Amino acid sequence: MSFPHPPTILKRLGHRSKKSLGQHFLLYPHQARRLAEALDPPEDAVIVEIGGGLGALSRYLAERASSLLVLETDPTLAAFLEKEVFAHHPQVTVLCQDVLLFDFLAFYRKVGSPLQVTGNLPYQITSPVLFKLIEEKAALSQAVLMVQQEVGTRLLASPGSKEYGILTVLLQYHFAVTRLFSLGPANFYPTPRVDSVVLRLAPRQPEPAAVDVKLLARTVKAAFGMRRKTLKNTLVAKAPDFGLTKEQMRGILTDLEIDPSRRGETLTLAQFVLLSNRLAQIRPR
Ligand code: SAM
Description:
The strands form two sheets. Strands 4-3-2-5-6-9-7 form a seven-stranded mixed beta sheet, sandwiched between helices. It has a two-stranded antiparallel ribbon with strand order 1-8. It folds into two domains: 6-203, 3-Layer(aba) Sandwich (Rossmann fold); 213-282, Orthogonal Bundle (Helicase, Ruva Protein, domain 3). The protein is elongated. The chain is built from twelve helices and nine strands. The chain is 39% helix and 18% strand. The chain is of the alpha/beta class. Helix 2 packs across helix 3 (58-64), helix 6 (126-135) runs parallel beside helix 8 and helix 9 crosses helix 12 (269-282). It binds S-adenosylmethionine. Residues 21-26, 50-54, 56-57, 71-74, 77, 98-100, 120, 122, 125 line the site of S-adenosylmethionine.
C-alpha cells in the first residue's frame, strides 16, 4: 500500500477537496505514522477512525489493529477507501457515515471490547465530536485526536485563563487530556490557515465525582453563561432555573467558600463538581 499523494489522487478521482468537510489531508507518511503510533493499542484492539479521507492515517492503523472501522462521510472518499485502499484487508471496514450519527456505544456492545478512537478531525465539528465522546465515554478505552491548536489550548486550559471554558471543564471532568505533539500547516494539503495539535484523551474516574453529570453540565453552562460576568449575574441570577431562590444559591456559594463576585471561569473543576452536588441535594424533586 503506497502512501497517498493527495493532489494526485484527488485529480484522478476528479474530486475537489471540500472545505465544508474540513478536508485537509496529511501529506507526509512520517507524520501519519506518528499519529497512528500515538494510539499504542493492545494487539486485539478495535480502532475507530473518524474521517478516513484518502487513508493516510488509516493504512498505518490497519497494521496495528485486529479490527479497524473507518468512518468517512464523503461518498467519493469512502468508495475510494473501500474499493482501492482496503479491498483486500478483511480486518478493515469502511462506513460512509457521519460520525455525529454513529453509535459508539452500540458498536462497543457489538464488538465486546472498548474502542480506541482516533482521527485527524474535520475541525468544524470538533466540539460536537468531543461532546459526543463525553456522552459515549463508556465505549472508549482512549482517544487520540488531532485538533486545531487553538482548540487544543482551550481543552488543556487552567482555571482563570481566557481559554478556560465549558468544554474545558466538561472534557477534563471525563478525560485526562494530554498534549502529544503539534503540526504546522505545511503538513497538509490543501494548506490550512491554522496549526494543529494531537491530544490524548484517557477516560478517568473523577474525584470528587458528580452525583448527576447532567446537572454538572448545566451548572457549568450556567456559570459560564455570559463570559466576564460574575457568578452573581450568572448562577445567582439563574437560581430559579435550578428550582432555587437567589438567596439559596448565594447560600450554597458561601458555604462552599466561593465568592459570588468571582467569575465562573475562575472556578476549578472540583469546585464545579461540589457546587453541582450541592444543587443536586437541595433542588426540588
Ligand atoms: N484522515 C485523513 C488525513 O489525515 O489525511 C483525512 C483528515 S481530514 C482533516 C477530515 C476527514 O473527515 C475528511 O476526509 C472529511 O471528508 C471527513 N469528514 C468530515 N466530516 C465528517 C463527518 N461528519 N463524519 C465523518 N467524516 C467526516
